[in-house]
Structures
1.
Amino acid sequence: MNTNLPSTEKRIINLIADIGGTNIRLAQASAITDNSDITDNSDRNGIDITEIETYQCEKFTSLSEVVAHYIEIKSIDDLIINACFAIACPVDTDLISMTNLPWQFSQKELKQALKLNALSFINDYTAIAMAIPLLSDNQKVKIGGGTSVAGKPISVCGPGTGLGVANLVPITVAENKQWHCISGEGGHIDFAPINETEQQVMNFIHGLRKRVSYEQLLSGYGLEQVYQALLFINEGKKITTINDKLLAKEITTKALDGTCSICEKTLTLFCNVLGSFAGNLALIMNSQGGVYIAGGIVPRFIDYLKSSDFRARFETKGRLSSITEQAPTYVITEEQPGLLGAAAFVLQDS
């Protein structure tokens, strides 16, 4: 980020945002230099996040409008503002078009319109990855064994609307140690079944889709497809009407309260396949810093995940099982990882 500041005595504000299709969260970030500066939002992770506001995107006509509103109500329009916005869409071109909103804008024009000193856009999973080194024990839950090695690669995957994947690698810039995020589309790699039931599930989904990726199982709609597959495999039933269809949230609820055996089998298969996929990430990156599970689905059933074969499937990698046995696995429970990651990004580059 270019942060060549004009000659002025004005205070610098680090403005951060987590922009989704429904809500946008805006806040201000600063590095903690003294424990007396710590607020309830810092959780002693080296960054203080304050002035958090959440807005419904549908109530604004553009991103510029909502950010300008925040700047006005916080009375920071006459200060130097360095901004980092995490957004759930590609950010590698100047023109950004949001997937689930009719918002389209130029990054350069937005910076000028808001009179920002610096502006960076990062993908939402880049933000989540950047947050990981800052997480305290209160913001994550360890699943199984393994020990994190400081300064080693970290991987993250997140079943949600889709299956997000990102990796962190340590780098040194001007003698300063930093984290660099390598993002990609790892959720779309080919699904590899390892037993007969998973093979049958893959065959069923292949009847619906031309290609079966891990995202076809490890996502909200993936849960729904696995349920439909297991319902057919176990009971010979096919869902033909929308009234017969169970949504992902309903499947997890029924699995957790024990009211539906097919839902329980669905959630068990989901956890086990997630273990295999996470273990694949650990092999690809040699993720001795750990593999983290993000997204809105898994934090709802952490105890169920612990009781499943998730960790066994993570570790079982043949001759190279020693790599996955050493790598720890965690579920991220921090409610605002996007804001925390955007804060880490803007402060690292400031």
Note: The longest strand covers residues 163-173.
2.
Amino acid sequence: MKLLVSTCVLAASSALLAGCNSGQPASPAAPETVQARVVQSRQQLAPVNVSATGTIHAHESAVLSAQVMGHVQQVLVHEGDSVKAGQTLVLLDDASMRASVDQAQAAVKAVQGQQAAVQTQADLATSTLARYQQLQAQKSVSPQEMDEVSRRAQAASAQVEAIHAQAQAAQAQETSARTMLGYTRVRAPFAGIVTARMVDPGALASPGVPLLQVDSAGPLELQTTVDESVIANVRKGMTLPVSVDAAPGTAISGTVSEIVPAADPASHSFLVKITLPHSAQLRAGMYGTAAIPTGSHQAILVPRSAVLLRGSLNCAYVLDSNNVAQLRYVTLGSAQGSMVEVLSGISAGEQLVDDPADRDLAGKRIAASSTAVSSEARQ
């Protein structure tokens, strides 16, 4: 009986103690500590840029077509082939043109034979006139005979001039025939690369119908349109940063090589050509964007390596006062070298995790590693 009472007393005491302890909050678990590089956002004067989008072209580009009608016999190049200036690219059927050249050559030879005969007669008439003039001085010929010899000499001289004109016409016809024969060979206008082939052997080539496209070798250029409100900020020879979607992360500096002086009356914009440095990543036909500076403003900059892309949203891990990382969504502006402007989501002087990769750092305490760098060091 006494054992039962003691057991009840112990149970009641334990229940009372448990009831008293249940009112106290449990101590939170300490967050996990992770080593990471830490960078700091900062506010500085940044340029205000206007983006001008355009297409990359070769400095020279030619669409080649035939100058005479004829069937294509051979196409000697393919897309991507390098060609030299004057190199034959397409051969047309030249049978009729060669026949015209042969006919013109025969006409030239015939006229040259006639010219030799007429010249001989003219020389004879001239020498006869000279002898009769001597006899006239001796009063050994009558005036009538002198007139006949003189007129024969004049007629022979006229025949020489006529046959000379016929010879020139025949030679011009031969030159024309040879020129037309040359048109049966389509040649490269300059050294470059074949970028398009629009014909195959057997096709009928006609003047104005494209056969090939050749782009000049060497550096490319970005051709973009600039609105009339911005064109005053563009000068020939100035250097502009250019970004190409097909070559992300590549720093490209282009030089303004040409500004077309007249604006497009429909869009009120000017064509600007920007020469790009040689790069194996650039190809004609790619899209590019040039940043045209129009002023400056105070901006908050962070390293681009500290910005993540989650889905279609940009975000960054920002440290609070306890160095605990919180995932925060941000709105970005223009890039400034290795830095990027933040329009909203981050204040100046805040610390961020640099290059977090795919790690989930939200709610974890960040211990700056020995390789931590500041945003100033990344400039």
Note: The longest helix spans residues 95-137.
